[in-house]
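Example (one chain per record):
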Amino acid sequence: MAVTTQSSDEALMLRVQANEPAAFGHLYDRHSARALRVARSVCHDTGRAEEVVQDGFLLIWRSRASYRPDVGSFQTWAMTIFRNRAIDSVRRDAAARRPRLTASEHEDADATSPSMPETVIARTEGDGLRAVATPPPRSGRGDRARLLR
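Predicted structure:
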């Protein structure tokens, strides 16, 4: 079946679901530039955004059976995939750069840091003490005179 420029995304996606690579190519041509903009807006890195787009289109191909046109448009479905993939990429990179504690550092931290209940109690008590120790705000000279009477 020939793909026309007038074919809707949903019609193309139905053909993709029937394993027609040409229809997938048309969807790629239509949406790759927008997908790159979405990914770049999240990643702030063109190279990483290009990887996200490639990964996203691969995911679209692999999960083509899960697309349901009655739930939403192809464009919305696809751009959500690209956005989520970009967020995952940024998070993965941030996690990789985060310093890791060694086993001995974990043990040291566990031995010296208070437990969660102790921390909550200390903060609550501290808030109560600050409230008692803080004098009421003075709004002017007349208030002080009234308090002294």
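Caption: The chain is about 75% helix and 0% strand.
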